[in-house]
Write a structure and sequence with these properties.
The protein is mostly beta strands. The chain has a single domain, classed as Tachylectin-2, Chain A (5 Propeller), CATH 2.115.10.20. 9% of the residues lie in helices and 49% in strands. It is built from five helices and 23 strands. The strands form five sheets. A five-stranded mixed β-sheet has the order 2-6-5-4-3. The chain has a five-stranded mixed β-sheet with strand order 7-8-9-10-14, with helices on one face. Strands 16, 17, 18, 19 and 20 form a five-stranded antiparallel β-sheet that branches. Strand 9 and strand 10 form a beta hairpin. The longest helix has 9 residues. It is globular and about 50 Å long. The chain starts with 11 loop residues before the first helix and ends in a 5-residue tail after the last helix. The model has no long low-confidence stretch (mean pLDDT 96).
Length: 364
């Protein structure tokens, strides 16, 4: 980006050159939750009109999947909230998810200037033993044509049985004020440094896959959230991690990463095709250092998942698989994803096959 001089992660150019517009779909579909099979406690509507893009956590005993779907109750402004549902792992692995009814509680709803028009696409994770989620807040500017900061990443922390909105992560001052939107985000603790992984849409139209090291007060705010709404925290440094491939319009972070040991992490991302604008999934392997930022070590040359089932190809946004959650489950990765912006779905990615695909795209 001319004039901004964003540092590029090692492996930036190589990662784009390796990738091809091909797919080897290795995902085993486990089931999907349609809107009429999720009852929202305390909400008088019979059911939501859409339930999709769910974050995911496993409980400590790996007996329950804790799902955090984005829910829509009306299409006029497409305003979203976030619910929490608990699903037995046995149901997931035995293919019962698509058949059963589940109940959920609203845990995050619009309440401030950062999410007035909706709370979308949560990524759930655990930092230092505390459950957190970063979601996309549709700000008060969302419907203002030509305005900046239409969406911003908001992080909420579970405290005392409720979710408290704590922090709005921002890039460095050179980017603040230049972004149309900022989304597809989560936090990562690297040796005490809090990183915001996010996808920014710059005012001139470029989409940037970023990792930003937040300033030191980030963890203090996460531990003791302010009582009057989330606090903005700026970054000390931004890194442009990798560009979209020539056949893509844009790429973005999917689920929070799987920690492989040391400073090595496995990330799932989505790419949007330039011609057909199909959402597909690929993987990236990176080391993340507290001072030097991410180093891209490998990328899958081929996509590892693409829309193929009817509920993935037909819906409010056709041909979309949109991963928001991932957790290690045995020798596989359990992935939660949105199917066609209408249903909340689950799949398994065999770890050995993901790593084999990454080996085909080794950089370091």
């Amino acid at each position: 980006m001319a004039g901004l001089d964003l540092p590029r992660s090692p492996g930036f150019e190589e990662a784009a050159r390796i990738r091809r517009c091909e797919t080897r779909d290795i995902a085993r579909r486990l089931g999907t939750i349609s809107p009429d099979r999720l009852f929202i406690n305390g909400f008088p509507a019979k059911h939501s009109v859409a339930v999709f893009n769910p974050g995911l956590l496993l409980d400590e005993d790996e007996r329950e999947v804790i799902l955090y779907p984005r829910i829509i109750v009306g299409y006029y402004k497409y305003v979203s909230a976030i619910a929490e549902a608990r699903i037995p792992v046995e149901d997931v692995l035995n293919g019962q998810v698509s058949l059963n009814m589940y109940s959920a509680n609203l845990v995050v709803s619009p309440s401030n200037k950062y999410d007035f028009w909706g709370a979308e696409d949560p990524r759930a994770f655990v930092l230092r033993g505390r459950r957190m989620m970063t979601y996309t807040g549709r700000t008060v500017n969302y419907f203002e044509a030509g305005d900046r900061d239409r969406t911003l990443p908001v992080t909420a922390v579970e405290a005392g049985g409720r979710w408290v909105k704590a922090l709005v992560g921002r890039p460095t001052p050179r980017l603040v004020g230049r972004l149309i939107s900022d989304k597809n985000a989560f936090l990562l603790d690297v040796d005490g440094s809090i990183f915001l992984f996010h996808r920014a849409h710059e005012a001139r139209g470029e989409f940037l896959l970023l990792a930003s090291r937040l300033r030191g007060e980030a963890w203090r705010i996460l531990e003791s959230p302010p009582g009057d709404g989330p606090a903005e925290v700026l970054a000390e440094e931004d890194w442009h991690v990798m560009p979209a491939a020539r056949f893509e319009e844009k790429i973005a972070w999917g689920a929070p990463p799987i920690h492989l040991g040391g400073r090595e992490y496995l990330f799932l991302l989505h790419g949007v095709g330039r011609e057909m604008q199909v959402y597909r999934v690929f993987a990236l392997l990176a080391e993340v250092h507290p001072k030097e930022g991410p180093i891209v070590k490998a990328v899958t040359p081929r996509y590892i998942m693409e829309p193929r089932e009817p509920y993935e190809t037909f819906g409010d946004r056709p041909y979309t698989v949109f991963p928001c959650g991932a957790a290690r489950l045995g020798e596989s990765i359990l992935v939660s994803y949105g199917a066609a912006d209408y249903m909340a779905s689950l799949a398994l990615l065999p770890m050995d096959e993901v790593m084999a695909e990454l080996d085909r795209g080794r950089i370091l």
